[in-house]
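Hi U.,

Before I forget, here's the chain from the pilot set. I'm dumping it here mostly so it's searchable later in email.
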Amino acid sequence: MLNDLFSLQGRVALVTGGSRGIGRMIAEGFIMQGAKVYISSRKADQCDATAAELARGGGECLSLPQDISTVAGCKALAERFAVLEPKLDILVNNAGAAWGAAFEDFPESGWDKVLNLNLKSPFFLTQALHGALKASASHERPAKVINIASIDGIRLNPQDTFSYHASKSGLIYLTRRMAARLIGDSIVVSCIAPGAFASEMNRDARDHGEAVAKRIPSRRIGTAEDMAAAAIYLASRAGDYVVGATIPVDGGVALADAGGAMV
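Structure:
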């Protein structure tokens, strides 16, 4: 049985924001463990290209582009998925946005864009896919919802990213509330709070990895394997009994808070 603890063979997953960055890392890890993975992102050409690339190794990866920054978009993605699959085993709510501006100048648009995508959409997409998740779920083999928050939802960084901080801390507590409700449907909800991973959103880690690593207790930025491993754990049989928890994957930054430095 130990050999099967981390297997995703025969499972169907949907990863939002899956065309790049952390979403792509998770999608690739799921495919390597045997899952059939649908990736979604706002830009269709990028989503199609990533799906084709990830499928070249022999796994199954399909593109399902959709803007999910609105409730209508969330419902549209769920409807499109339902045409292709009768059930959903794993949903990863990863699509996100950030916005930085001085307190005096922070715009409403920077608030609404970030809160809509980072906090509102994970709730309403999960709601829209509730039936597909329930169709997969059982006490012996629960369906999974994994929300991707950030260590900025756990501790402060010195940048003026007001709506981002609010959205990610809100998502951590929303995870707990959703977990308490959905465990009754044999749907396990959990959360990952990433630290410094090279991505379009975290350009500091992407472009200045060595400098960023000096501010991290583990003395390196995160790798694709680090992120994939955490997501596979929560998505697989190994994480079935982990309900409502948020796992920081950050090299120790949230725990030690290395001088409050932005990572």
